Amino acid sequence: MLKITTVKTDRRCRLVLEGNLISPWVEELKREWNDARVSAGNMPLIVDIRNVLAISPEAENVLFEMICEGAGFVCGGVHNRHIVQQLLRKCEMRERGQAPERIISGSTNRKQK
Fold first, then answer.
1. CA atoms within 13 A on the CB side of 59
2. Are the C-beta atoms of 107 and 75 separated by less than 8 Å?
3. What distance separates the 2 farthest-apart alpha carbons in the chain?
4. Which residue, among 54, 67, 56, has the nearest Cα to 15 in the 3D structure?
5. Cα angle vertex 57, ends 53, 59, to 5°?
6. CATH number at residue 53
């Protein structure tokens, strides 16, 4: 099961994910992500995966696209942080020439395009 909560403020839009990021909920995440991108406009989009227990390969592909589209991540736990770091590297390789990303205090910050 996966719970997705969208928290929108004047400064940012945050998707808070809780549970298992596996099929069939990956499709729901895609829908929520697309809705959040539209409603956020130019505001930063943050994806909070501190309470995600499992991430399937299919979900990694969605997270990869989110990272490449400019989402920032808040991570908790060694496993989730490692997955996001790998996806960041993969995205950087795809983009070539972008400044390396950094992880600070459990957060992965990504510049908006």
1. 21
2. yes
3. 38
4. 67
5. 65
6. 3.30.750.24
Look up residue 34 and give its two tokens: 């697309």
Tokens 């908790």, located at residue: 76
Q: For the chain, percent helix, then strand, then coil, each to nearest 5? A: 40, 30, 25
Each residue of 23-68: pLDDT tens digit?
999 999 999 999 999 988 889 999 999 999 999 999 999 999 999 9
Look at strands 45-55 and 13-21 and give their pairing: parallel
In the chain, the number of structural domains is 1
pLDDT tens for 57-102 read: 999 999 999 999 999 999 988 999 999 999 999 888 887 655 444 4
SS3 for 37-70 is HHHHCCCCEEEEEEEEEEECHHHHHHHHHHHHCC
pTM for the full model? 0.80
